[in-house]
Amino acid sequence: MQLYRINPRTVFVVMFFVILATACTQFMPPKENAQPSVSKGDEVSIEYTLKLKNQQIVDSNVGKKPLTYTHGENKIIAGLDKAIEGMHKGETKQIVVAPEEGYGAVNPKGFQEVPRQNIPKKFHVVGARLQGTDPSGRTVRPRVQEVRDETIVLDFNHPLAGKELFIEVKLLDFKKTVSNTESVPITE
Questions:
Q1: Quick check: helix, strand or coil at residue 116?
Q2: For the chain, what are the domain ranges?
Q3: pLDDT tens-digit profile of 44-59?
Q4: Nearest Cα to 147, choosing from 179, 115, 102, 99?
């Protein structure tokens, strides 16, 4: 067996060039042909299918009009917004959204017990959907949670509150927007 001696100076020179090459690649400008990706403020168009854990489809716009929104402005649920960040045109993702980043946890204060006579008889069925307005004039759509002898329990929580969501999303298109908050001096 033959032993080779490694010159410390050679090791130093090799390490120097490895470090230099690594540093240079970190500060290189992006390639000109790099595909742009979604970022805050972009006008985004997506196609999606929303399912529950049991694979029941809750909502889908596949084959219909795309959902278009301004990215990063809380127009869609937080978990979906985060997943779309950085996507490229034509890209598809399958994501799982926890209740905290979807429609929130079930709020115990979202249940209200009302006298039976305040609800029309045809809605005295568990699962029935009502529509009305709250004191501020906002439209509400509670669901009958429980029918009791003298009262009815209404659930004002979002129907998907407390549920894990499974979403397949495809980025159909997006447009970069230009910020109009910068001031540009105008000279005559």
A1: helix
A2: 43-104+162-175, 108-155
A3: 999 999 999 999 999 9
A4: 115
| Chain position carrying tokens 């509150």 | 161
pLDDT in tens, 4-42: 666 767 666 666 666 766 666 555 555 555 688 999 999
Question: What is the rounded CA–CA span in Å between residue 113 and residue 92?
Answer: 44
d(CA 157, CA 170): 29
d(CA 44, CA 68): 5
Handedness of CA 11, 16, 22, 25 (dihedral sign): negative
CATH architecture of the region 43-104+162-175: Roll (3.10)
CATH topology of domain 108-155: Thrombin, subunit H (2.40.10)
| Residue 38 and residue 68 in contact, taking contact as beta carbons nearer than 8 Å | no
- Report the alpha-carbon distance of residue 106 to residue 15 in Å, rounded: 57
